[in-house]
Amino acid sequence: MLKHYLKIAFRNLTRNKVFSIINILGLAVGMGVCLLIYQYIHFEMSFDDFHEKSIYRLTREDFRGGEVLDRGLSVQENLGPLGLDAIPEIRNMVRIHDSFEDLVFTTKGKKKVFQEANYWYVDSTFFDVFSYPLKYGSAKNALTESHHIVITEEIAVRYFGNVDPIGKEIEIHGGSLSGSFTVSAVLSSIPINSHLQFDFLMPMEFLTTNWRMYREGNGWDQYNFATYIELDGKSNLSSVESKFDQIILDHIGEELLPHEEQVKIYLQAVSDIHLYSDFPDELVHNGGNKQQIQFYALIAIFILVIAWVNYINLSTAQSLKRIKEIGVRKSIGAFKRQLVMQFMTESLVHNLIAGLVALGLAHLCLPVLNEFIGQTLSFSLFYSIEFWVIYALVIILGALLAGAYPAFVVAGFQSIGLMGYKNNSSVGSASFRKGLIVFQFMISILLVSGTYVVHRQTNYMMKQDLGVNMEEVLVVNGPRVVLKLDRDIQLSKFKNFRNQLTAHHSIIDVSGSSHTPGQKFSWVGEVRKLGTPREAYKNGYVVFTDSHFANTYDLQFVAGGGYESHMTSYEDGLIINEAAVRAFDLGTAEEALQEQLIVSIGDTLRILGVVADVHWQSLKDAHYPMVFALHQFDNVVFSAKVKTNDMQETLALVHAAYQENFPNDPFTYHFLDQSFNRQYQADLQFGNLFAAFSGLAIFIACLGLFALVSFSATLRMKEIGIRKVLGAKIGHLMMLLSKEYLYLLLIANVLALPAVWYWGSDWLNNYAFKIDMNIDLFVIPGLILLVISTFTVSYQTFSTAKANPVDSLRSE
After folding, report:
1. φ, ψ at 724 (rounded to 5°)
2. What DSSP designation does 483 have?
3. How many Cβ atoms sit within 10 Å of the Cβ of residue 363?
4. Exposure of 562 by Cβ count < 10 A (0-12 exposed, 13-18 middle, 19+ buried)?
5. Burial of 393 (C-beta count, 10 Å sphere; 0-12/13-18/19+)
6. Helices (H), 87-229
7. Helix axes 17-45, 336-373, angle to 10 degrees
8. Arithmetic mean of pLDDT, 13-29
9. Which tens digits make up the pLDDT trace of 229-285?
């Protein structure tokens, strides 16, 4: 019997080639897109699953009077080691300190010189906690000496070529962090699904003994250490967190309690970091976002449902051609269950073929997905038995869901009624088919609206006035080798470099600073107005600059002025922004000039000027209360405000002046607007993927719409012929055939509005600065789909309306 069912299924497959191709193509594209999305979601959820041990990261929240003041992953230097000694559930611990600034790395004899930023200082237990394989060297001894250095495989090739570099030396230049280091181990390529991405590892001991802030500190005054712990498998996380809280109370409780302050520690599983963590002080901002993953999963479900709905609609419509066949079968004794099995077998054959085609489509489209996300994914799912079981179940489920309705509808008719059938389009529920079309349209509108909202928001962020000049600023990484020299010589070289550049007509001004917009801050800590109690402090976000920074970046003063030429340090005063005026309760901008600020627990400094708010980082964040502090020896980066008439000549000039003054440092540069906009890379990627998947969903829906209109037009050929004989115009006939589908589109628009409003508002709540949910967010997506649908319908209705009525009425 099964052989008979299959024979009939393949016979019908070849007899109705166009509808079979449309049916299978719609299913295949839907399944293929789902495969791509599933692979991407699987990749995003696989981060750090290769580590063999139970690893957690410490995070913290700072409270005052029950209010959260600050949150992040950086904790004090001593917290991890004391926790390891005092908390029995902790098996091991490792601290990571990220880079302060770029350093110059050279091979012996300075044959190769690079400026590097992606280096970390870590405890010697790093490889005991994390499961990163080594290509050369021993994990046990890799970080036991203060002048050891571990490098990645890619760095080893760049510095030393394709040889074993163990024992070779790397010179590092950067003031007190300078030294000669011996390569002790080489990591194999770090997995792309690791939240930790680095190029160099150096011993924590070197940092804490050479950096004065730590050498002279008490281990509790700086929050700069990311701390990871290995727990035994039976640990109670809440209990461990409470024990860390007690350690903090035991050591600095006397400082915290009088001000009603509290530092609370939480444990975060390392596997949760990528998707669930986005602290300002993340070691690596790698773009993971749980909400986006949920959106992608929803898109995959929507697209698969659209494909199944297509199949149901087309199969039900196509079954009208087989009414007499079913009548004959029933009249000679076929049972209803046999007819149902026939239709279900055909549905299974279609889904199986579509499933195979989907695998090929997904494989072909994976490189395109990789281009979108900037990764090199492969279909690792294909090596999983679990995947093949799930995929088989999806195909079977699709066959059951998509085949059940047409099978039971047609098989349920009486044989006498079926034998008398003559192109009566009422067989099957027209209302049900229309409901499915509305559902397809509604999902398509949701996807198009989502794409439109994401692109509107991204464009808004990239075109918003940031309060600083971005478009004409050339940023050059500052020198590090020169930091070994006497400070007077350093300052002389900095000034000479600046004077050489500003003497040229193409350069308006040059400034040195610790950071530029789009980067972190030099320092974040306690700031309060003079006269207020210490517990009234708020976090201030400090950037060290020279006296030319305000002019180079076109900062707009709303009160007071900038640094004058005779000033030498921040002790002469500070420049703050309007957000700082509000945060520190300084009154108006003019009134703020009469106030003084206490920075940290020491310096009391006057306010020289107030500038308009600056978007120092992404528009996802609110304005930070910023402090621009004068510091002539913190020229980590140079910023040149340039005229863009002849950039090649300007770059050549800057390069020559840099090499003359800093001959031992590599010359590296970038344009500020480009580097700043990289913060929106994840949003652009999300928008592009959303658009691509939405386009495919619309393609599938239009395939079904085209086929359904074609079939409907075929059933009404005689009606159209009679109307033409009676004088109907082509335009009127096209409207007659099209209007019911356009009405359905209008209904779908109305039904989709609440969901668009809810999901759009929810997504935009992630941004401090965002677009408004205006009427265009609802109208334009509907118009886009209207145009696409009208074009899809019009092609077929025009062909039908233009046909010679003699052809359709000849048999009457």
Report:
1. -65, -40
2. G
3. 15
4. buried
5. exposed
6. 126-129, 153-160, 204-210, 212-215
7. 50
8. 78
9. 999 878 899 999 999 999 999 999 888 887 788 899 999 999 999 998 888 888 887
As a whole number, mean pLDDT of residues 782-793 equals 81
Pairing relationship of beta strands 179-187 and 148-152 according to DSSP bridges: parallel
- Nearest-5° Cα angle at 736, 735 to 739: 65
Give the separation between CA 367 and CA 384, rounded to whole angstroms: 21
Q: CB burial class (10 A; 0-12, 13-18, 19+) of residue 494?
A: buried
**Residues comprising the chain, all counted:** 812
Tens digit of pLDDT for each residue in 211-226? 888 888 888 988 899 9
CA 749 to chain centre: 29
205-242: buried (b, 16+ CB within 10 Å) or exposed (e) per residue? Answer: bbbbeebeebeeeeeebbbbbbbbbbbeeebeeeebbe
- Residue 200: pLDDT above 80? yes
In the three-class reduction of DSSP (H, G, I as helix; E, B as strand; rest coil), residue 781 is classed as helix
Question: What are the structure tokens assigned to 254, written together?
Answer: 């006397």
pLDDT at residue number 184: 96
- Name the average pLDDT for the chain: 84
Q: From CA 186, how far away is CA 552, in angstroms rounded?
A: 43
pTM of the model: 0.83
* DSSP assignments along 326-357, one per residue: HHHHHHTT--HHHHHHHHHHHHHHHHHHHHHH
**Looking at the predicted structure, is the pLDDT value of residue 811 above 60?**
no
- Return the C-alpha torsion angle 408, 413, 418, 421, nearest 10: -80
Count of Cβ atoms closer than 10 Å to residue 372 Cβ: 16
- Dist. CA 379–CA 719, nearest whole Å: 52
Question: Residues near 145 by Cβ (< 8 Å), separated by ≥ 6?
Answer: 182, 184, 203
pLDDT in tens, 183-196: 999 999 899 899 99
Element (H, E) at 400: helix 385-411
Residue 426: per-residue pLDDT: 46
Question: Which pLDDT score, from 0 to 100, does residue 325 have?
Answer: 66
How many other C-beta atoms are found inside a 10 Å radius of the C-beta of residue 66?
Answer: 7
Give buried/exposed letters for 291-321 (b at 16+ CB in 10 A, else e): ebbebbebbbebbbbbbbbbbbbbbbbbbbb
Task: List, in sequence order, every residue forming a beta bridge with 262; answer none if it has no partner.
Answer: 63
Q: Which of 217, 211, 105, 119 is nearest to 158 (CA)?
A: 105
